[in-house]
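Deliverable D4.2, example record:
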Amino acid sequence: MNNITEPNEQISSKHRPSMHTDKNKDKIVVNQPIAFATTADVKQWIKTQAQALGFADCGFLSVHHPLFAKQIVQLQQWLDKGYEGQLQFMHSNHELRANPEKLVDGAKTIISVRMDYLTQAPTPRTITDNDHPNQGIIARYARGRDYHKTMRSRLKQLALKIETMLPEWQHLNIGSERDFIFRPFSDSAPIFERPIADAAGLGWTGKHTLLINKQAGSFFVLGELFISLELPDDQPIKEHCGSCSACIDICPTQAIVAPYELNASACISYLTIEHKGTIDTKYRRAIGNRVFGCDDCQLICPWNRYANITPVEDFAPRHNLDSSSLLELWQWQEADFMKKTEGSPLRRTGYVSFLRNIAIGLGNANACADTVAQLQSKLGVHNEILDEHILWAITEQQDKLKAIKS
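Output generated by the structure prediction step:
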């Protein structure tokens, strides 16, 4: 916890309200400035500014909070089970994860923010993606502009707004008299992002390991602003998952191996985005038509009946990524992929891995002779790994076509 001294009762002249006489009414009129009597007032002002910038909420946590030491132990236990797959970066920078103050010299407080990203409310507790087997499903956060850039840009704007207020806060002994240091992050450093947001009261960790907010569900992304001001911690909230196991039960690949425990190497989001190379045949049918990420565990969550629509335009779908068929995406040439994924999270997969994912989707799509022909058109064009997935998809299609004829 930070040691924050209480402000003096005496307010310097620059913080006193100004007065003037209204000659017409002969009354004293007081022009009352914003009063910053406590650190709570500062935090509320920052929260208001954050919301004006499109953030749904923010919370505050010391860089010295005890959660970091606890999380390092839990991370190592998770790694020991081999759940990370190809995420080798999870083995590195444990010293920085455990001591976030070393990431930004002089930082005292982490402002954790969340940003809603839905542009259309989903049908509560229903996996409607399954109703469109010939459509290429892209996770809802990734259909527009890459949120990482949006998040960092707006966090920087928040920091600059804070900097303008430093003279107003010098009587509070929070370090505002010193040079202001800040740095924004959005999935861009070894930071325990979700545990920070949890500890800062932005929600609780659900059994699917994502953060859930009682008033907003879980369709939001997280970011952090490290600052040199010393502000008191916010408090975590009570979890409200209860006995519900909907997210565990619905996971197509059973990647949620226990409440609050995810085998990332089996998660469709990992397989379609981070995993390079061959996707194990045991997961291919379960992947269905999901070509970039997966929203199933969120769509089924009862708390997402309260999910909010984003005010941030960057999340609006581009290039029909919310409604494109698998065959439309399959016909993208590499130049099309590079053009249509500029400034998009989809770039992360790379073109050939994107085709690999689409090939799996086409294998799972409704039986169609044209689909077989389209799959055959890319055999031998790129690499053996893609060919393997194409051949699998062709076999799946042919088996379904034979079943229809018999």
